[in-house]
Amino acid sequence: MKWVLAALAICAGQPLWAQDRMTASQCDATQAVIAELAGQTAVMFSNTAVAADGWCEAENIIIEVDARSALKADGLRWRASGIERLIEQGLPPLSLDVQLEGIRVRPQMDDPVLDYLLEVQSRPAGVDASLSVRWDGVQNAVFVDELRAEFDESNAVVVSARIDGVDLSDAAGLQTSFGSAGVRDLSITADFDGWFETVLVLPLGSQLLTAGDVSPREQVADLQRQAAAFVGTLPEASMPDRAKTALNDFVMALPEPRGRLQVQLSAEPTLGAASVLRATMSASDPASMIVAVLEGVTILATWTPEAAQ
Questions:
Q1: Quick one: which of 280, 242, 279 has its CA closest to 262?
Q2: Of 135, 157, 189, nearest to 304 (Cα)?
Q3: Cβ count within 10 A of residue 308
Q4: Quick one: which of 291, 297, 293 has its CA closest to 278?
Q5: Which residues is 297 bridged to in the sheet?
Q6: Alpha-helix runs per DSSP H in the chain
Q7: CB atoms within 10 A of CB 143
Q8: What pLDDT digit, counting tens, does each position of 289-304 carry?
Q9: Strand partners for 107
Q10: Helices and strands (H, E) in the chain, number of each type
Q11: Strand, helix or coil at 1?
Q12: Which residues of the chain have pLDDT under 50?
């Protein structure tokens, strides 16, 4: 949760063309702020400097997850407008671009040889990620122009969003935004060609599947039926039948999907913590709560299998 709040604290901005060239002191100060926000979590950078294009850059980023593992990235680049707001006042800058190269989990086994071999083994599985986000002070809206995770040329997830009700002009506005912020528009495009199995199958399967008389394949089939039944309960006003069919087709392709999933959400009024809380408190049962949460929300989806692309 701390990392989510830290990310929100630097998500504000102007159009990307207004980005400032960073200075060496700003790069160093930003690194110090990140370390402070991380608290007890160790965050290490190497060779922080200003690149020729005006971005801050660093190498060998390591975030200690626990005694046995760490997140590592080969490279980090960032730039921001109004970065002094963050450095001097603890307020969000006006915009932020971040690029990460070669993100991966690095096991730590307290064995130099094994640690080295695991590090070499994990390097080809590294993920590249980028984020471009800005705040429009006139509309009081945060625009996530692009959040991208790219595993390779055929495996990627791209997200864009508009979040209304966000006032980042001062500390008081930032505080009230946690209650007033809500998603207005959300778009997700995911290309599947093996990344689901590599990244998600083990952690999800460990939580959802159990050892016993029912085989894992049968359990997966039962979970697929449950997911289809849940999608079927969603109000048609919020999710048309065509979108439900697309989601069900995607679920049936799990756990080895091959194709492109596209999901678009629009909400009027916005969908945020306040609206969800109101729906939770007023609903008499789960079905009515879902209807209340999705009031004014439209969700569209398409699933294009690999053979059809």
A1: 242
A2: 189
A3: 8
A4: 293
A5: 267
A6: 2-8, 24-38, 83-84, 112-122, 171-180, 195-199, 201-208, 216-233, 241-253, 273-282, 286-293
A7: 23
A8: 898 999 999 999 999 9
A9: 69
A10: 11, 10
A11: coil
A12: 1-18
